[in-house]
Specification:
- By secondary structure, the chain is an alpha+beta fold.
- About 40% of the residues lie in helices and about 20% in strands.
- Strands 7, 8, 9, 10, 11, 14, 15, 16 and 17 form a 9-stranded mixed sheet that branches. It has a 4-stranded antiparallel sheet with strand order 2-1-5-6, with helices on both faces. A two-stranded antiparallel ribbon has the order 3-4.
- Helix 3 runs antiparallel to helix 5, helix 4 packs antiparallel against helix 5 and helix 7 runs parallel beside helix 8.
């Protein structure tokens, strides 16, 4: 399980602190270890097809009690139908052991699924459902025809009354008026009897089907209860260590979070597996990295061989416990925020609004950390402004034009323009790779990745429509300079549309979420065009990118 480096690493100094797992540049020792793991994966012919579909792997450089440096390797989830393979660390808890409670109970739940499936596909049940549907359809058509007849009869009665009221016409006798009233009452009563008769015909069949479906619902309820109990018992088996030797189950760890319950698959990612084995053997974790191997999944964006931070939804609470006692690097993103540019270039200003050039690395609005943002600087500059100031946002890593309103009314007007998509926007970006089309449109619906915020994912079911027009400006050295014209304003829209295989499949250079990290994200909001809320004039402002 502990691997010795085959490549020379004696000259590589050890890091002073352990890797901050949610934002990092892989340490050279981790890169060396990852290359050896990747070479091993390349030799596994039996896994070739599964590996091609994509999987996350991780390496952990450790120091043994004897002072020896080596590394551990792990994969997330299950590989080749098993979670135990000699080259990799074992799982924190092996839920696939044949005689374990999980497999036994899973089989029981599977049997319930089979029974539910058989009941739902029962031929007699289907026949009765079809019969019920046909009966309801006939009843509806018959009653609708009866209503039409009643309406025609009513129109004839009204017509007779109008004729009788005309000059030189024979007036209606009391007997005739009474007959018309009786006719109306009879038709209404007849309709009620007909409606009641159809209900009586439908009711026995509906009751038979309801009784049948109640049996299905009982099984579904049992399945739900047993699944929840099994999941709870499973999470209690994951006893996670930290560097101090303290133990917490997944239930203990996630009990302190907003959702209270661990998500499916918690504890089965590479990072927790690696740390658990290091602690069990008394080895000190030195540095860690995770990389993707294979094709990108359809919803998320993963690039073969790229390094990725630990996921937030499943791993952040777990690693928050497991890293206690270790000296861990500061969050590099927080350091960048604290050390970033503290001035803003004013591109346009009048008594109602201002347009600034936000530098890359500055937040549009304050986050959890108390750092400088466009909002804080504008609030300081315009202390008497009575509105929320910030009309729209740019990602922290994106530079470019941002509109700030000085009054509440101006803010509301500008936000309405953004909402109804009457604001013209142009972004300039440098992409890694060559975009084949000279111009076109990307339409990929987007939604947040619930287990790995702030990443967005492409999802046809839950995603909101996102549309981006583009125009290639230049191609050079396997890079593309491009203009984006977003029609919608979803979070990370341009970044995902650029990187996703179904989009341009060329990530923006410096996009560490969807591509590779660089000195900056090469994305700039170059042009804004909007109607001035007070003067009514159309304003167009341009600020060229500095790259």
């Amino acid at each position: 399980m502990l691997h010795h480096f085959h490549t020379p690493v004696a000259d590589i100094p050890l890091p002073e602190r352990f890797t901050f797992p949610f934002c990092y540049t892989p340490h050279p020792l981790c890169v060396a270890a990852a290359k050896e793991v990747q070479a091993y994966l390349g030799l596994q012919e039996a896994w070739k097809e599964e590996l091609a579909q994509g999987k996350m792997f991780g390496v952990l450089v450790v120091r043994t009690q004897e002072g020896e440096t080596g590394y551990l390797a792990a994969f997330s989830g299950i590989l080749a139908g098993s979670n135990v393979h000699p080259f990799f660390v074992p799982p924190v808890y092996d839920l696939l052991q044949p005689q374990g409670f999980f497999k036994i109970e899973e089989e029981q739940i599977s049997q319930i699924n089979t029974r539910i499936g058989l009941l739902e596909e029962d031929e007699e049940y289907k026949r009765q459902m079809q019969q019920l549907a046909a009966l309801r359809q006939t009843a509806q058509e018959t009653l609708e025809e009866a209503k039409r007849q009643m309406k025609r009869a009513k129109e004839k009665r009204e017509e007779r009354r109008r004729e009788a009221a005309l000059p030189n016409s024979t007036p209606m006798t009391p007997e005739e008026e009474s007959a018309l009233i009786r006719d109306s009452q009879f038709q209404k009563a007849e309709y009620k009897r007909m409606e009641r008769a159809w209900k009586e015909r439908i009711a026995p069949l509906q009751q038979t089907i309801s009784n049948y479906e109640a049996g299905i619902q009982v099984l579904k309820s049992e399945r739900k209860q047993r699944s929840a109990a099994l999941q709870q018992k499973l999470f209690e088996q994951f006893k996670m260590l930290n560097y101090r030797g303290e133990v917490k189950t997944l239930c203990d760890i996630f009990g302190q979070t907003v959702h209270k319950t661990p998500p499916a698959g918690a504890g089965e990612c590479a990072a927790p597996k690696l740390l658990q084995q290091a602690y069990l053997h008394g080895w000190k974790p030195i540095a860690m990295a995770e990389f993707w191997w294979g094709e990108s999944p359809k919803t998320e964006i993963r690039h073969h061989g790229h390094y990725y931070p630990a996921c937030k939804g499943k791993c952040e609470p777990i690693l928050g416990h497991m890293l206690q006692g270790l000296e861990v690097d500061e969050n590099p993103m927080l350091k960048e925020l604290q050390s970033g540019k503290k001035t803003l270039d004013i591109i346009y200003e009048d008594e109602w609004l201002v347009v600034v050039n936000k530098p890359a690395g500055m937040l549009s609005v304050p986050g959890k950390e108390d750092v400088v943002s466009v909002y804080s600087m504008m609030r300081e500059r315009y202390p008497d402004a009575d509105g929320p100031l910030i009309v729209h946002r740019l990602d922290m890593a994106t530079s470019g034009l941002l509109v700030v309103a000085k009054t509440k009314q101006v803010h509301q007007n500008l936000q309405a323009q953004f909402k109804n998509r009457s604001v013209g926007k142009r972004y300039i970006a440098l992409l890694q790779g060559s975009v084949s089309q000279d111009a076109g449109t990307v339409e990929l619906p987007l939604c947040p990745n619930p287990l790995d915020r702030p990443r967005q994912m492409v999802h046809t079911g839950y995603g909101k429509p996102a549309v981006t027009d583009f125009e290639v400006l230049e191609r050079k050295d396997n890079r593309t300079r491009i203009a984006f014209y977003p029609r919608t304003g979803r979070t990370h829209q341009l970044r995902v549309h650029a990187a996703h295989p179904l989009g341009l499949h060329c990530p923006i250079i410096g996009d560490e979420l969807y591509g590779r990290k660089s000195e900056r994200l090469y994305l700039h909001a170059e042009m804004l065009e909007f109607t001035h809320p007070v003067t009514g004039k159309r304003i167009s402002i341009t600020q060229k990118a500095d790259f």
